[in-house]
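Look over both lines before class:
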Amino acid sequence: IEKLMLSIDNIESHKNILAICIENTKAKILELAIRGKLVPQDPNDEPASVLLERIRAEKEELIKQGKIKRDKKESVIFKGDDNSYYQDLPSNWINIRLSAISEIITKGTTPRGGKIAYRQSGIGFLRAENIAGYDKLDLSNLNYVDEESHKNYLKRSILKENDILITIAGTLGRTAIVPQHALPLNSNQAVAIVRLVNNKLINVKYLAYTLNSPIIKSDLLAKSVDMAIPNLSLDNIAECNISLPPLAEQKRIVEAIEKIFATLDDIANQVE
């Protein structure tokens, strides 16, 4: 029995080591992705600088229409700065702040009465624990609020398809993308909401993977306020440095990441 227990302990230890290796490999893949080293560049791709100008034009129109406010800090294109990760980007990439491509960056709202406001059914109400990472939502432990609260007091945090969600309290930096089939949804104040100016000009999965890269995660953790519950401000999110490739390359990067991640997940599942 002692030998059997020792063997079981060894198996569990090796499982843990494998899990760590898989997560480290995923992190390395994301690091290569945001540096332009995961897939080949195509000189025929429309440069990201042209893409950004189209986004800026759309954002300016939204400002003129009074739908959004102008950014307090105007975004500029920059390379290098103080971070070596951005010094050797491909020539048709740019480095921008997340706010430059976002229509809004806001956060959810706590319903009046807190937990008392939760219902057995109604409008799904997301908390940080529902943000599962990368592009995934975990809807298995979902709370609900009534439709009146959703449309009135909580209207600022009504979610839309392809919104990118980021946890900003507790466990920081987990992400998810809002799928159409999960709507209608709302969220609490521990979740930041990033809504892009135009989802057709930015691949939302590329952006979600970028936000999970080691350099972004490290930067966010460095900026977090160390209270009883660690938290990030919306300014911290808005000022994230994003390496932006051409749109066609964004798609190629996402396809490569998902293929590699699927293989790694298969390996992990086989040893469970």
